[in-house]
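User: quick one, fold this
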Amino acid sequence: MSQAPDFKVTQQQFTAHIRNPESVAEPADVESRRMAIYRRLIYNNIESFLSSACPVLKQILGVTAWHNLAADFIRQHRCKSPLFNDIAREFVSYLEAHPQQYQTMPFIAELAHYEWAELALSIASPDFAKRELNDQENALQLSLQRSPLSWTFAYDYPVHQIAPENLPDKPAEMPFFLLLYRNADDQVKFIELNPVSARLLDLLDSGQTGQQAAEAIADVLQHPQPETVLQGAKQLIEDWLERGIVI
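Assistant:
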């Protein structure tokens, strides 16, 4: 009398076939019709999450290339998180690990990361209070930090400008610093920073006051009029406070 196959072995055969149905045979003890249903269910769910997270990337690639990429993601990548909301971040990790998949479009991993960040920021739920600046306070004298709903990234490609009619063919000479934040209406917005404003935000986040940060920047730049740097920093910080970017 033959013994029933070990359950773990059956699971491994099942998932291996779901991942790679073209190369891995169906489990012998599962009806083909049922396996086809499982294949469609798994693929359609994952592809749907990827489509929602990366609409620009999907549009750029076109239907065939997009579905081939989604299928290869399912086939090759081993997700570290079981959460559906993390699928898009896992997709970014897959793209970063497999650059050979898109040699003609080397910006794809950064574009996917940017689109993931927009999605992740839209559903983030940190607990914090917005900082209000009163008439007696000087923004340069405050100890501030980046809001949990403001994220900055540096990209080699202008991911915020990429579209089917605007595809970069090489990285820029200088990185693009993008500040993504969620406003009081729960809308995700972005601001393109320059290297100086990006540095100012980093210094604020490290514990320096606006005054200390601006003076440090003026010193590095050897600016002939440090007061101009201080005034510019004050205006930026006031704007960031109003937008809830710093708290």
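User: anything notable?
Assistant: The chain has a mean pLDDT of 93.
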